[in-house]
Amino acid sequence: ELMESFTRVFVDSVINSFYPVPEEAIGVGSAFEGWSPCEWDGVYRVLVPLSPPAGHTFHLELNSAGQMAARTFSVRVELECTCKRQQLGEKLLCFLHHSQEELQQKQKCSLLETLCTSSYLDVEKTCRWFCQLVRCSWLHVPQSYSWHLVFQPCSRSCRFQLSRGKKRLMVEMLLGVRQGDSDIFVVSQPAEAQEGGSSILVSSQPAEANFPASTAWPETYTVAEVKFLQHIARQVPCKNLHLKCLQVFTCILRGTGFSSSTWKTVVMHVLTIVPLSRWSRREFVVCLWDIMAYLHCCLQLNRLEHFVLGNERLPAEISLPPAMRRVEPLNLFEHLARDPAAHREAMQAF
Asked: pTM value?
């Protein structure tokens, strides 16, 4: 409800400007998927897609090939002709075909002059602008009458605490740009700085130390994963059973050597293999053994494939960029294949 209220105010605030247009927020991570690992940091994360303002377009450019699951993109901002829109009666000058003098007198600055660095959308500038937008919007949403909002310092997202009496709620709004019309986004914050991301190994370094350049937007698959788990919940006899299985492994077996993202990847793969009719209460223990058997097989083969990249079993309703369906699946257990000692340790943990 809070995000819906904010979205309405955002649209009214930016409608006559040349800042990005915030779209409806998407809940991401375990809190919105219906399960929470023991190490959950208590932060509710939402991804706010940004669309270009009038007279501008966004173009995603891959920064480096690298590992598919660790790719970053730059968001190149280009001006587009708006002469036809002016002819239709809109009070909008064209950044391409009107003089600088006329633009300066009658129109606000383009996005290139405010939130960009060398024609690329700057993550930190955009987040500072967005935090100010949230700050200015807060008194215009109904929740401001009953909740107290305090901002938390963060350079690549908008993070704040809501409090009402003894109740506390931490919220983090990540900014993203959609790849075409798919469910894959580039996002303001790297996966290792988020809970419930697709990374298998969690860095021991502080998240801030791993942040890429200010014009680099990491690729994220969290929206596709949320949609997949929602799709499964509509298909299985007991809609939360698969999430209970996931919680068993991430909480009861905490500290046994496997991260919550490993368990989540394994469970999602099993959901595409085991008939969905089997996911019922009376089969709960059998489902747990199915998950263990799949993990055992992955460990023996030193291979656990990324759930989104190159997965031919993804439901058709999850939209991917065409090239992403054709890629060779990424092996998340490649480090075990390279390091026999790590493999022995993983087998002992199993």
From this structure: 0.87
